[in-house]
Amino acid sequence: xxxIHFLTIVIMVTLVACGFNDxxxxxxPYLTPLTHSNTHITWGEDEALVEINRDHIFDHSxxxxxxxxxKIQHAEDAVLILDPxxxxxxxxxxxxxxxxxxxxxxxxxxxxxxxxxxxPRLDISGENTPNRRIELAWVTGIGFLSINNCAPSVRHCDIxxxxxxxxxxxxxxxxxxxxxxxxxxxxxxxxxQIVSGVFSLSNSLRFEANQIGxxxxxxxxxxxxxxxxxxxxxxxxDNYEEAIYVFSGSPTFNENNITNFDIAINVVPFNxxxxxxxxxxxxxxxxxxxxxxxxxxxxxxxxxETISEKMILxxxxxxxxxx
Length: 323
Hints:
With about 325 residues, the protein is mainly beta. It has a 16-stranded parallel β-sheet that branches. A 10-stranded parallel β-sheet has the order 2-5-10-13-15-17-19-21-24-26, with no helix packed on it. Strands 7-8 form a two-stranded antiparallel sheet. The N terminus is likely disordered. A hairpin with a 7-residue loop joins strand 7 and strand 8. The chain has one domain. The relative contact order is 0.08.
């Protein structure tokens, strides 16, 4: 399997000569992360508003519970300077290495509040132990949710972007996302509204009954890459320049409504490897019941002067849209 290793480099520069000194001891607290160890912490138990002014790290020995109705507010001065010019800014990041139970209610959600124009970020990583709990429900306002190496449940949330990597037994349902990206993960992604699109690399996920796309046309609906064998069933994929982009992936598409596209499927090989497997794209509604109309919208693009030899099976084509 052609696995791409992603190296995330975060360079944090702490300004020493910027007016802070030991005599007046007014160094901003947000320059140092706050690490929680060997404890259980509950946010919202004493006060509904939780204000944080620095990065928080909950290590593997610590669990965090966030109660329904809790609001997480980043302090106005809690903006980290990442370069000497001061032009790379971000609010504090919450990192979870242990358990997280953030379960709001439909009429009493957990809210992460904006910091100016910035949305908060939540990173979940650590060891994927059998009894570890990662539960999010009825949570709003997170700008970027990164989940690595665990078995998360994310339900009824409004999150701008979510990224999954090395996650097993994923349960992602009934959420509103701008985009979702996943690497090397398995499980279920069901009945979500996804505005921009789906990036799927080397996954074995099942995407079912999702609404993908809105009125504004985007570039790609589904990007399937590098040994991806995800299954897409009963989704609506609407209004894209390229509805499905297959870059060395081997996904399966059945019983989907795929409409309003310039290109139905764009097939691209990995470097100079032509790849010759057969992809099951049967029994989908493409806005037409005629196979020849759909076939005209399948494109094979070159990569390193190579054209993919994958075969795309689209017949039978669904005669009418699926409910």
